[in-house]
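for the writeup, i need someone to sanity check this before i put it in the appendix. the sequnce is what the collaborator sent (i think, or maybe the updated version? ugh). structure was predicted straight from it, no edits. if anything looks off just tell me and ill rerun, i have time this weekend
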Amino acid sequence: MYYVMQTLISTKHQVVIPKEARKKLGLKPGQKMEVEVTNHTLILSKAKKRWEWPDDYYKRLKNPWEGVDVEKYLEDERNSWG
């Protein structure tokens, strides 16, 4: 659904996100937001989780072969080559 709401810019250039919009998007205080500016339009959206190098990558790749029969995996790969 599409909503159009108005808000004001404070003297400190802060914008209050209307309550209905905050509830609809599940926004919380301190949450990071992304700001996109195109032509005469400003788009404010929930920030996507950005991976931090290298910590998040090492956590994700902690043990990629856990629970995998590596020999069978390699055999299946080799057989798939035709």
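The first helix runs from residue 19 to 25. Residues 19-80 form one domain.
thx in advance!!
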